[in-house]
Amino acid sequence: MQDGTPGMLLAVTHVQTLLGDRTLTSASGFFFRRNGRLFLVTSRHVLFDAPSGHAPDHVAFSCHVHPRDLTRVHHARVPLYADGRATWHQAEDSGGDIDVAALEISPSHIPQPHAMQSFGVEDLANGHPLCDVGDSLAIPGYPLGFHDTVHHLPVVRSASIASAYGVRFQGRGYFLTDCRTHRGSSGAPVLLHDADRGTGRRWRLLGVHSSRMDMGGRDAAQDESLGLNCAWYADILLTLTRVSVPSTPSVSGTALAGRV
After folding, report:
1. Local structure of residue 64 (DSSP, 8 states)
2. Residue 154 and which of 71, 162, 183, 187 are 20 to 30 A apart at CA?
3. Is the distance from CB of 152 to CB of 70 less than 8 angstroms?
4. How big is the CA angle at 174 (ends 79 and 225), to the nearest 5 degrees?
5. Which runs of E-coded beta strand occur in 94-188?
6. Other CB atoms closer than 10 Å to residue 176's CB: what's the count?
């Protein structure tokens, strides 16, 4: 990841799902690079969600093509299925399905030259003891699709760690964040500013924002929403981007087993 906040924002992209030529939903995502391979990472439910019947066949995203003229972007459209098999990778662990998906992007979908940035393995927290409950976080994304439409950049929500970091909340592979979020933020990276590297403003990729957490018995007339959200631990990307990981095996989005 390049130093500086602009570099971080250039690694985040607006994701749209499509069925044929019809746009279905808007979400957030980010680019992750490993061993020369590029992946688009977002929430799994953005690409497939059985309870709601959400089953797009393509996903669209954009990337910048000039490092100074941020008004110039390239729009790409990538199929989600090939020969009846899903082209993205997802996983499950002992706690159940993990709401993160990684879609490998062919070099043919990325223009040359380009100004796109990406996160990498070196940006993961990897158990580094730099995270604690209450620490400030940044969640760049596209809430309700809102963004800088001139420069095609996301907006950033301020957040904090709201549960014991490193502990699987209620046995699931996520921790909680305290942040005001909206639909369209799903798939956004959850970032911690790491000021200890001595190389300027840098970020650690802690998680992938998924959804709001709320109480089933909350009285909407008397009680405000908890304002808490689920962020899946980003180390799941080490499983999803392994060279040996096969494609998810059906158009129904059957889970691919992977331990984290």
Report:
1. E
2. 162
3. yes
4. 100
5. 96-105, 119-120, 136-141, 155-161, 174-178
6. 22
Single out the residue of 120, 114, 156, 152 nearest to residue 39, CA to CA.
Answer: 120
Q: Name the fold adopted by 5-240.
A: Thrombin, subunit H (2.40.10)
The DSSP 8-state label assigned to residue 54 in this structure reads B
Residues lower than pLDDT 70 in the chain: 1-6, 127-130, 195-201, 213-226, 243-260
**The dihedral sign for the CA sequence 71, 109, 8, 49:** positive
Q: Distance between CA 41 and CA 187 in Å, rounded?
A: 7
DSSP state of 257: B
* H helix or E strand, kind and range, residue 112: none
Q: Residue 259: what pLDDT?
A: 22
Segments in the chain forming alpha helices (H) = 5-9, 44-47, 236-240
Domains of the chain by residue range: 5-240
Q: What confidence score (pLDDT) does residue 68 get?
A: 86
pLDDT at 213: 63
For residues 109-121, one letter each, b for 16 or more C-beta atoms within 10 angstroms of the residue's C-beta and e for the rest, the string is ebeeebbbbbbbe
User: Residues 219, 223, 225, 226: is their CA dihedral positive or negative?
Assistant: negative
Count Cβ atoms within 10 A of the Cβ of residue 97 and give its class: 0-12 exposed, 13-18 middle, 19 or more buried. Answer: middle
Nearest to 4 by CA among 189, 150, 199: 199
Q: Which residues pair with 216 in a beta bridge?
A: none
- pLDDT value at position 198? 55
Q: Which two tokens stand for residue 61?
A: 């995203």
User: Omega before 113 cis (within 30°)?
Assistant: yes
Query: From CA 194, how far away is CA 198, in angstroms rounded?
Result: 9
Measured distance CA(7)–CA(24) in Å, rounded: 29
| Cα 173 to Cα 181: distance, rounded to the nearest angstrom | 20
